[in-house]
Amino acid sequence: MSDDETRGPAPSAADGPLSRDFERRTFSDRERAVIRPLAEAVFYDESDRDLSDRFDWLVPEVDRLVSATSWRVRLAYRITLSLLSFAPFLVSLRFCRLSTRPVTERAALLARLDHHPIGVLRLLLVPWKTALAFVYYEHPAALAETGYDDTCATGAPRRPGILGVVPLAEVTSRRSRAHGGPT
């Protein structure tokens, strides 16, 4: 039997594009279970708002973001996540995992880690804060909280007064009146 007979027919352009019916994932379910408590601690505030839907959305999005990088970056994220899961041991010599602690204690531990005298330990948190912030503020509710107005992306005319935007014709007429020119 020849090689051509065992492999079957080669796909052609007439068959359509090759489908990617899989989703690349960098993190295992165990690692994903650490990302959520980490994000809750990074974005902790003392209000009683329920942000569970935002954190449910955040974990797979962070995984997609990291999965789109090179293998070295993915490896670095996995290593730093493993080390951050043992942050209580690194900061206060407690034999427990970060994900098992209450959110207030997690936030305090990360704050202590962020100001740790050993610089390498401080650097563990930097890539995670960056990736989490990129993704967290892409959530529609977070965009609305920051005052983002997506009408510039949709092409719809801006409403006057949004984010201090004033139509150009109004600005030029104000300047000419202020300098004594024609209106």
List the main descriptive attributes of the protein structure presented here.
single chain; 183 residues; mainly alpha; 11 helices
Short description:
The protein is mainly alpha-helical. It has helices spanning 3-7, 29-42, 52-67, 71-85, 87-92, 103-114, 119-123, 126-136, 140-146, 151-154, 168-178.
Provide a descriptive summary of the structure in words:
The protein is mostly helical. The protein has two domains: 29-148, no CATH class; 149-183, no CATH class. Helices cover 58% and strands 0% of the residues. The protein has eleven helices and no strands. The longest helix has 16 residues, at 52-67. The protein starts with a helix and ends in a 5-residue tail after the last helix.
SSE order and pairing:
Layout: H1 3-7, H2 29-42, H3 52-67, H4 71-85, H5 87-92, H6 103-114, H7 119-123, H8 126-136, H9 140-146, H10 151-154, H11 168-178
Helix pairs in contact: 2-3, 2-4, 2-6, 3-8
Strand content: under 5%
Per DSSP, the total helix count is 11
Nearest-integer average pLDDT: 78
CA gyration radius, whole angstroms: 25 Å
For the record, the count of structural domains works out to 2
Number of strands: 0
- Outline type: globular
Biggest sheet layout = none
Structural class based on helices, strands and sheet pairing:
mainly alpha
- Element order: H for helix, E for strand: HHHHHHHHHHH
- Helix fraction, binned, reads 55-70%
Distance between the termini: 89 Å
Low-confidence stretches: 160-166
